[in-house]
Amino acid sequence: MIISASRRTDIPAFFSEWFFNRLRDGYVYVRNPVVPQQVSSIDLSPEVVDGIVFWTKNPIPMLDKLDLLKDYMYYFQFTLTSYGQDVECGVPNKSRVLVPAFQRLSNQISPERVIWRYDPIFLSKKYTVEYHIRYFEELARRLAPYTERVVISFLNRYERVVRNMSPVGLVDFPDDQQIALAKSLVEIAHSYGLEMQSCAETLPLSDLGIVRSSCIDGVLLGKLLGCPLTVGRDKNQRTGCGCMESIDIGEYSTCRNGCRYCYANQRTNSVPYRAQRHDPNSPLLIGEVGPEDRVSVRKVVPLQDRQLKLAL
After folding, report:
1. 145 DSSP assignment
2. pLDDT tens digit sequence for 155-192
3. Which class for 8: exposed (0-12), middle (13-18), buried (19 or more C-beta within 10 A)?
4. pLDDT tens, position by position, 93-125
5. What whole-number distance in Å separates Cα of residue 5 and Cα of residue 18?
6. Are strands 38-43 and 27-31 parallel, antiparallel or unpaired?
7. Between the CA of residue 229 and those of 109, 273, 312, what are the distances in Å?
8. CA-CA distances (angstroms) from residue 142 to 64, 147, 287, 308?
9. What is the DSSP letter of 228?
10. Cα(239)–Cα(236) distance, rounded to whole angstroms?
């Protein structure tokens, strides 16, 4: 079983105490996002967890506690863009805080296990093509010794996202311009020895040397573990997503990074209220199990193929 922590919220930044309490207790409760009264109990013991994928914009609250993960294999998807707090309202300063945090994390666990995400990419009067090229290169220069891979994607213009982005002033970004920018960025990435991948993109980027990513990467986890994983593609993700099957333990509308482009905060004005209901000692990320909830144990199995392969 692979644990995703989490596409739905930034667990390292805001809920790390809760997460380590869940590892200590050996299980976590997860509400079904469609039918909230359905709660799954997930075994978190090292015997069944093959790997953990952390998604974050700020891992600092976890950095002094990584020894608590010694029994698990894990890696980080670390989003580090060039946007300011007009877009990522609650994210700390990139140059002074987050770039050093990225470097420290890499030094603690290895560059192979810290994946740099520069996404989503959009254009505005401030965030122009030239702006992206200039600041992407600055970030690549500082991060290249601390990672092996950078992942890009372009903003999906969901109605809610466009509405939240209105103060930023999005401008048209046709496919041919996206491809041209991707070409410039991959050339920069390659000049610093970085592999570039794309996340859930349908644009024809492979001819540029940009590989489709698997953010939940069974191949990478198998390499880190020293044995292959028998895991299939996650059919519940959007078209173009190459992720492997995983169990996400987060909840929507709980992230306090305040990014205007966020799709996971479905009701932005509810985030402060939901944050107040967080108890780091609860098995649920938000709130408690109520009398109307139905808790069921989700069957999970390890994915590592430890059978000896005989050469014929």
Report:
1. G
2. 999 898 999 999 999 999 999 999 999 999 999 999 99
3. buried
4. 999 999 999 999 999 999 999 999 999 999 999
5. 12
6. antiparallel
7. 21, 40, 22
8. 22, 10, 40, 42
9. -
10. 9
